[in-house]
Design a protein that fits this description.
Layout lengths: L1 E6 L2 E4 L4 E9 L1 E12 L6 E6 L5 E3 L7 E6 L4 E6 L8 E11 L4 E5 L3 E6 L1
Parallel strand pairs: 2-11
Antiparallel strand pairs: 1-3, 3-8, 4-5, 4-9, 5-6, 7-8, 9-10, 9-11
Length: 120
């Protein structure tokens, strides 16, 4: 069993910054890709950023140059540094982690979600 614990969401003014964290724990042998998704009210969930085990990253066009995804493999943690936040970044942000468990099965886990609200 694997658990994901997210932190770092909150309320911030436009132009401000937040840093999200997502820590995985449990029966982990290794972790492949890690990512962040978001879903705003009335909209579909979208990929915000993703990072592979080798460190390659990709971002949604709407956040390029403002958001940075990173990971600490020793801590099984993925981060999302969000700068120059805009009201349209308001959403529930969820982490997504591809885990190889200690019994060598691959699963995709989702965090519980953390609210990010950007006021204008």
């Amino acid at each position: 069993q694997v658990q994901l614990v997210e932190s770092g969401g909150g309320l911030v003014q436009a132009g401000g910054s937040l840093r999200l964290s997502c820590a995985a724990s449990g029966s982990i042998f290794s972790i492949n890709a890690m990512g962040w998704y978001r879903q705003a009210p009335g909209k579909q969930r979208e990929l915000v950023a993703r990072i592979t085990s080798g460190g390659s990253t990709n971002y949604a066009d709407s956040v390029k140059g403002r958001f940075t995804i990173s990971r600490d493999n020793a801590k099984h943690t993925v981060y999302l540094q969000m700068n120059s936040l805009k009201p349209e970044d308001t959403a529930v942000y969820c982490c997504n982690v591809e885990v190889i468990t200690t019994y060598y099965a691959e699963y995709v886990y989702w965090g519980q979600g953390t609210q990010v609200t950007v006021s204008s």
